[in-house]
Amino acid sequence: MGEQSRQCSVWLGSETGILKGVSLSRKQAFNFCNTSHLSRDQEVRALCWGDPAESELLVGSVDGTVKTFSVEKGAFTEARRCGEPSEGCFTGLAALNGSSLITCVECGTVRVWKEDSAEPATQLDAGKNVCRMRQSPLHQHKVATGGKENGLKIWDLERPEKPLFTAKNLRDDWLDLRRPHWVRDMAFIPDSDKVVTCTGYHQVHVFDPSTPQRRPVLEAEYGEYPLTTLSLPASGTSVVVGNTHGQIAVLDLRKGLVRGCLKGLAGGVRSLQCHSSQPLLASCGLDRFLRIHSLEDRKLQHKVYLKSRLNCLLLASRDLQEGTGAAEGVSQEVKEEGEEEDEVWDTMEQVEERPKRKTEEEEETQKKSEKKKKKGD
Fold it and tell me: d(Cα 289, Cα 10) in Å, to the nearest integer?
């Protein structure tokens, strides 16, 4: 399995608890899991790299365990308990200084775990109903949190007593009514202190902690449906957002205008990630496909059917296009344990619907109309 895992350039976590790897250059997809213990409790909710060399993957499951997957060996090497199912699912997972681990759960508890320690070294409360936690790519000890009726907060894990920045509630609407707040995802804009968020009320906000203003410095809207996830291209001047109806759009962060839309999805978008050096976007969601789009011409480059509803994805930093063919080059179907019902539906005999038989009244009216036509002639 080590040879197969080293070929993979895209990693995905599924609802069935299977870690999936896709090699775009070889047009192959692989499953990595322990089939004897496969259950819904192992559903993968978070993925991140365990080290800068990208030799290890950290996989967060619904049951509160974080497993370490070795890309070199192609197998899981370690599992540690980092939460309880009663606290909710993982909403964020990140590595800190190579050996430590940052976790965040839905109840709002953010923990820092040292290596070979069963108790967290640092713990803070980010508030209830946290939907997402993100780590700053430049300052690893800084994280951002947000959720339903829980505004954006930026924390310094070295000083966890209070947040560095707390977003202020949005201004009341034109009827002087309070506007609800629901942060679904966020990202740190490179080469600045700004943070961009997307909400469950189809809004995109940009906050600037370096200024006295705690409300958004930019507000934009896209579509009519809740936004679920976002990702920043390498340029940092735009943001890609996805919603619950499979719509993906590229928005300009300077003016808040929509630059274009990416088509092809047929279900809610669960995860988006832009490549760190190439103009490529990977997306996955409820329609069970991994898609790779080009951000230059917004065309579909690759499409992979993986037979499970997908929760999260992670891209390798190396070149994804190396040795690849034409668009939609990957069409590998992967057989999974516990999904034999798909094969049953495929083998069932197709029943063709017969044309509906006309009633006696319809036949009589048709005969009368034909007689009238003949008399008229």
Answer: 13
CA-based torsion, 49, 240, 64, 34: positive or negative: negative
pTM, to two decimals = 0.82
- Residues β-bridged to residue 115: none
Q: Buried b vs exposed e over 192-220: b needs ≥16 C-beta within 10 Å?
A: eebbbbbbbbbbbbbbbbeeeeeebebeb
Length of the chain: 377
102 contact partners, CB below 8 Å, separation of at least 6? 92, 93, 94, 95, 96, 110, 111, 112, 113, 133, 135, 143, 157
In this structure, are residues 271 and 285 in contact, taking their beta carbons and an 8 Å threshold? yes
Please name each of the domains of the chain with its CATH number: 39-125 (2.40.128.630)
331-341 pLDDT, tens digit each? 444 444 444 44
Q: Distance (Å, rounded) from C-alpha 112 to C-alpha 95?
A: 9
For 297-320, b where at least 16 C-beta lie within 10 A, e where not — what string?
ebeebbbbebbbbbbbbbbbeeeb
> By the 8 A CB rule, do 147 and 134 touch?
no
Cα 240 from Cα 275, distance rounded (Å): 12
- For strand 258-262 and strand 248-252, is the pairing parallel, antiparallel, or unpaired? antiparallel
Alpha-carbon gap, residue 371 to 361, rounded angstroms: 16
Give every CB contact of residue 274 below 8 A, 6+ residues apart in sequence. 231, 232, 233, 234, 240, 280, 281, 282, 295
Neighbours of 367 (CB within 10 A): 10
Q: How many CB atoms lie within 10 A of CB 225?
A: 15
Rounded Cα gap, residues 93 and 61, in angstroms = 11
CB 335 within 8 A of CB 342: no
Q: Which of 340, 276, 351, 358 is nearest to 314 (CA)?
A: 276
- DSSP summary character for residue 308: S
pLDDT-derived band at 329, boundaries 50, 70, 90: very low
